[in-house]
Amino acid sequence: MSSIPSIQSGGSLMLSWQVKDRHVLVVGGGSIGLSRVNHLLEADAKVTVISEKMDPVIEKYGELEMMERNETRKFCFDDLQMYETSNRDELAQLDLTEPENVQLVEDFDRNQRFALVLVCINDHELAKKIYYRCKQLGLNVNLADKPDLCDFFFGSVYRKGSLQIMISTNGRSPRLCNRLKNFKIKPMFDGLDVNTAVENLSYMRNQLRQTIHPGDNPKTIEERMEWNKQVTDFYSIEDWCEMEKNDVDQIVSHYPDLPSLM
């Protein structure tokens, strides 16, 4: 019997949540709300902020048409469905063997409902009520500084182009995450041209899929993945950071054989 991995419980499921062109609601426009908005804009979300007081930077984002909507007013519970035009009960009864019905559900999910609700207000009673209303509506929600009332946490993120690294303590010490990012991870990567490495490896994968060994059958996919894995590991990270496109073309030309060191 093969050995099984050691499972350490108590962690979070670390995901890269895709919110591109999805509606996200931020309740509260202070400093924490601004931090959330910055993360969301970098993820290309369609951001709506509702707050009685709005940080000037969020207001500026609105002026620059970077936001879906900014509303300086009190929150009301209808805001959680402010973009919904379809009837939820009717959608739940649709026959999904019909393509037009699938399109209706897809439109509701992508263009009407909030993908995420982020609550960043000091009124803890109201925040708690928003949380449970989100649960009734099936919405994923995060309450700032209330880890017990969160479907997900925000970690400290180091980003360099397409590379994103998130550190999390599962809500126990966000400040430690920030220090680890600035004093450990950032110095480690700042000396590397990681963007070039990412572009080179992405280009190699695309060449394999589209030109060198196309196909969607399981055997072809497995062959591509295995070769890609071996070649990626064959060169050092520094090598991938320094290569040019013609170097990658030369490597791919050896497929299915492994190239020799350059």
TrEMBL record:
Pfam families, sorted: NAD_binding_7, Sirohm_synth_C, Sirohm_synth_M
E.C. code: 1.3.1.76
Domain (Siroheme synthase central): residue spans on this chain: 161-182
Transmembrane stretches, start-end: none
Annotated Gene3D superfamilies: NAD(P)-binding Rossmann-like Domain, Siroheme synthase, domain 2, Siroheme synthase, domain 3
GO molecular function (one): ferrochelatase activity
Pathway: Porphyrin-containing compound metabolism; siroheme biosynthesis; sirohydrochlorin from precorrin-2: step 1/1
Name assigned to this protein: precorrin-2 dehydrogenase
Organism of derivation: Eeniella nana
